[in-house]
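Tokens for chain A. Residues wanted.
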């Protein structure tokens, strides 16, 4: 288990015990892809599930393997994914309240060209992550080199082994900070924008209306948005983009 997984578990347990000290703790384990969008989604869900007296923890996995284990019921679901995963993974149920928003952008190192949709990437060697579904679908049939992590994608870009990287904006900006990479930046405009949703395995179908109600209330009173904005600012500081 990684250091983040341990911190994630500890924070989740602490929140849940505060919310329901008198009952035995129910625990759920969700797939946690190693990127910033997932970490921010996890922070929102820790608070939401604590209101139900449920502790959650995350298991860090590559994106494609995470979906397979969630769909098989080995894990309890996904922290957050784009809409439509339930069509590809029929054992997953989408909780119908968006807990975040993701922008898919093109990162380059000194290369500048107009981003006019997916076809504008066709002349280039493209790096992306296995299991990053919007990138897999958008770059189908192009020259793509897929790796398991954000870190590996940007290492290839820094070394000149790919020309561009397609990645979620927040996760890309965070990786640039973590690795201290210079000269790499996102091009504008974004290729795509997606809302992010929490998914539960069908064995937890009874939980769907309960967590939906909690998230709807958090959204209505502004708590969900405040948690997200605070987390983005904490991770990215002055590099944080304005994303609702």
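Reply:
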């Amino acid at each position: 288990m990684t250091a983040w997984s341990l911190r994630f578990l500890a924070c989740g347990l602490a929140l849940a015990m505060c919310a329901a000290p008198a009952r035995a703790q129910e625990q759920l384990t969700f797939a946690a892809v190693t990127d910033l969008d997932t970490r921010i989604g996890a922070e929102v869900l820790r608070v939401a599930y604590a209101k139900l007296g449920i502790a959650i923890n995350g298991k860090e996995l590559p994106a494609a393997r995470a979906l397979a284990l969630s769909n098989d019921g080995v894990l309890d679901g996904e922290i957050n994914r784009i809409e439509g995963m339930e069509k590809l993974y029929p054992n997953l149920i989408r909780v119908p309240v968006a807990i975040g928003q993701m922008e898919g952008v093109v990162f380059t190192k000194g290369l500048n060209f107009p981003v006019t949709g997916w076809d504008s990437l066709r002349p280039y060697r493209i790096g992306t992550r296995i299991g990053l579904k919007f990138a897999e679908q958008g770059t189908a049939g192009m020259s793509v080199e897929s790796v398991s992590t954000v870190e590996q994608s940007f290492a290839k870009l820094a070394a000149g082994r790919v020309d561009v990287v397609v990645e979620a904006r927040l996760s890309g900006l965070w990786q640039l900070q973590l690795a201290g990479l210079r000269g790499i930046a996102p091009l504008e405009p974004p290729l795509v924008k997606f809302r992010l949703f929490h998914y539960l395995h069908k064995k937890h179908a009874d939980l769907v209306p309960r967590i939906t109600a909690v998230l709807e209330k958090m959204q209505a009173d502004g708590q969900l948005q405040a948690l997200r904005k605070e987390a983005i600012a904490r991770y990215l500081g002055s590099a944080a983009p304005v994303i609702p």
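The CA atoms of residues 94 and 199 lie 5 Å apart. Confidence is low (pLDDT under 50) at residues 13-24.
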